[in-house]
Design brief:
Helices cover 46% and strands 19% of the residues.
């Protein structure tokens, strides 16, 4: 009899151990859907060099998509999104595009110069910036850079009210330079004089 009791006690211990082990997979399976649902919520955040290409600058970019240029001058930079969209569009046909910009930046209540520079660097654009007035910036470009392939004027009133700016733009333009000016949110070509000839560039 003592042997039978010992046998039963051993069997009972073994059964309890098996039942507890059998419950453990159930605990794991109940936790598993929760972990799977947590993983399903996570989504990778996409960032693109052309994140602004189809947005507010799509009209301008459509006019640029057939151009092949190696230097760009932007007069009035806004928040930097236009520069990113323009450079992405132009990079599809050209390599090693130099980017220049003239703007008053925070001096005129605009975007911070350092932040603008960092934003463009984050998109692999290495800008050369000329902070200050349009006339001063254009003169610096004329003396240090020379001619530019594409000139974008974000605010037409800046040159409409200042003939000196138009004259300097003609100085930094060559036969193939494209000059586009924004008026009432519409970009149009600007007529410039090179030497003694006037021409319309698109």
């Amino acid at each position: 009899m003592p042997l039978l009791k010992l046998w039963n006690s051993l069997r009972g211990h073994s059964t309890t151990t098996q039942e507890s082990k059998a419950e453990e997979p159930g605990k794991l399976s109940s936790a598993s859907p929760a972990s799977r649902s947590t993983q399903a919520i996570k989504r990778p955040t996409k960032t693109s060099f052309g994140m602004f290409g189809g947005g507010p600058h799509s009209g301008l970019c459509k006019q640029l998509k057939m151009l092949s240029v190696h230097s760009v001058l932007e007069i009035g930079v806004g928040d930097g999104s236009q520069a990113i969209a323009v450079m992405e569009t132009l990079s599809r046909r050209s390599d090693s595009i130099r980017y220049y910009a003239i703007d008053g930046f925070e001096m005129n209540g605009g975007v911070n110069l350092k932040q603008f520079h960092q934003t463009l660097r984050n998109h692999n654009i290495h800008p050369q910036l000329f902070p200050g007035t349009v006339d001063r910036g254009l003169m610096k470009i004329a003396h240090t850079i020379g001619s530019v392939d594409l000139i974008l004027v974000a605010d037409g009133s800046v040159i409409d009210t200042n003939p000196a700016s138009t004259e300097i733009i003609s100085r930094i333009s060559h036969e193939e330079t494209s000059v586009l000016v924004a008026r009432n949110e519409t970009w149009s070509s600007m007529e410039v004089s090179i030497g003694h000839r006037s021409r319309r560039v698109a």
